[in-house]
């Protein structure tokens, strides 16, 4: 049974607009969906993480709607105004610089605020960087742990220590100027022999995936270009002996 903290007034809902979260290509414009183009053309206004970054993509698909900035620096303030527009019946589409909004990008706060006011929210399926990187890695995909960007300073080591025993595939985002340092940190906390798959420039002309131990991957990138955004898939930790026995016992119970 689903318990709700509020009841939805259907008549009120019909008078409000809808918030659309619209994924955009992470590199290859051919990955844009027909539905995404239609929603962006039909929306009363578009919210973009960086209007300058989104402008070429919108122009390419002949999308001429008004575009306003909605990013991490103004998200709380602008969300209040956006909610007002939605309550007035405006349909609004949110896009990020690339990929799916709210996945390591602005969007979560606005979605939460819209739901507080019973405003309909719809997220279209589409591009996101970690899915192809995970599938390409060759690591288990049935269970995985998405971490996005690790904290830059405070809490970073604590997070590494926590993840060191994580048995699911771990997915991280990293910028090019921090990649080598992050690989050094992984060698320290995960071990130099932990298996790793690093993808960069996904869907673009110079797309590349490098697989191997932490040491092998670091050696490779020390002599190759550090360009584009990186998605790092880390093999899960091997379960300790006690956990293996507990899992075997649990599996046998389920079969019974």
Automatic annotation (TrEMBL):
Residues 18-217 form the Tetrapyrrole methylase domain. It catalyses: cytidine(1402) in 16S rRNA + S-adenosyl-L-methionine = 2'-O-methylcytidine(1402) in 16S rRNA + S-adenosyl-L-homocysteine + H(+). The keyword Transferase applies. Pfam families: TP_methylase (PF00590). It comes from the Bacteria. Its main location: cytoplasm. One of its GO terms (molecular function) is methyltransferase activity. Keywords: Cytoplasm, Methyltransferase, rRNA processing, S-adenosyl-L-methionine, Transferase. It is an enzyme of class 2 (transferase). The keyword Methyltransferase applies. One of its GO terms (biological process) is methylation. It is found in: Cytoplasm. Its EC number is 2.1.1.198. InterPro entries: 4pyrrol_Mease, 4pyrrol_Methylase_sf, 4pyrrole_Mease_sub1, 4pyrrole_Mease_sub2, rRNA_ssu_MeTfrase_I, SAM_MeTrfase_RsmI_CS. Belongs to the methyltransferase superfamily. RsmI family. HAMAP family: 16SrRNA_methyltr_I. Catalyzes the 2'-O-methylation of the ribose of cytidine 1402 (C1402) in 16S rRNA. This is Ribosomal RNA small subunit methyltransferase I.
